[in-house]
Amino acid sequence: MGVTKALRIGAVAAGFTRDLEFDLSRLEALIRHGRREEVGLLVLPDAALGGYLFDLSRSDHDDLPPALELDDPLIAKVIAMAGEMVVCFGFCEAAGDSRYNTALCVTGDGILGKHRKVHQPPGERAVYAAGDRFEAFDTPVGRLGMMIDYDKTFPEAARALAIDGAELIACLNAWPTSITNRAPRMNEDRQSRLFDLYDRSRAAENQVVLVSSNLTGSIGGMRFLGQSKVVGPGGDIVARTWSKAGIAIAELDIRSEIELARRVLRHLDERRPEVY
Fold it and tell me: Where does the source fall among the domains of life (predicted)?
């Protein structure tokens, strides 16, 4: 389904913890803020319920994020909070004996789409099972696909969503500063540059709107970048939070922006898959 009018999009930068009631309260405040701003699509970070891992430099982990099944009452509460708004958020999903780093897209009517993180950095592999697909789905604000942080490092992930018709890509992140060579200033950190580079490249390559949310603050040995943003289909950043907590809000006519970007060069149509 296409979008026929301007859409207000919010990309959230915020911190979350192991305290699920605290996280739920923060989610409620952010959704309420988005509603006041007449946001139609609100993208919250990865690990918004329960926080992220404390350390990616080791394979053994303690104090893991709490794992929630899809029918957990806390998930139901977030769905109810969303109301008429389309809301994407991340959490640790319990599925049988496995845990997944999962993103849900919901409205008050229920779950619209789910994505389990496919690409895992080494420190995650001991904790989470890997997802096995990238699928777009229809929502009240347009056809949407989701990625979770490290997924966006791989161009094939966003490309698969765009080929599946995604006009909007929500990338939910728990993206930290460099673990091996942290810079004294966050904006000089290697991971800060890569975070922005991947966001802008994935949008421009596929000529879609990309909404990138991220954690802020610290948990364990991890310090998160923030830098949540909305990126247009030409790779231009139209709203961002920088490193501070907040919501980057942009108003775009999604269909018109995409048609303008594809007016002469249509990347998806001009691919040559037979030679790749």
Answer: Bacteria
Whole-number Å distance between alpha carbons of 191 and 60: 24
The answer as to whether 1 is a domain residue is no
Burial of 104 (C-beta count, 10 Å sphere; 0-12/13-18/19+): buried
| CB-CB neighbours of 101 under 10 Å | 30
159 within some domain: yes
CB-CB neighbours of 109 under 10 Å:
11
Q: What is the pLDDT of residues 105-126, one digit of tens each?
A: 999 999 999 999 999 998 899 9
Q: At what angle do helices 155-163 and 190-206 cross, to 10 degrees?
A: 30
Nearest to 261 by CA among 200, 212, 211, 205: 205
Four-residue CA torsion sign, 25, 98, 123, 210: negative
Residue 117, CA distances (Å) to 130, 136, 184, 231, 252 in order: 6, 14, 30, 21, 28
Q: Give the domain CATH number at 24.
A: 3.60.110.10
Segment 130-171, tens digit of pLDDT: 999 999 999 999 999 999 999 999 999 999 999 999 999 999
- Give, in degrees to the nearest 5, the angle at Cα 69 between 31 and 99: 105
Sign (positive/negative) of CA torsion 188, 194, 200, 205? positive
In angstroms, rounded to a whole number, what is the distance separating the alpha carbons of residues 83 and 72?
A: 18
Per-residue confidence (pLDDT) for residue 186, from 0 to 100:
81
Tell the burial category of 35 from Cβ atoms under 10 Å away from its Cβ (0-12, 13-18, 19+). Answer: middle
Domain that holds residue 122: 7-275
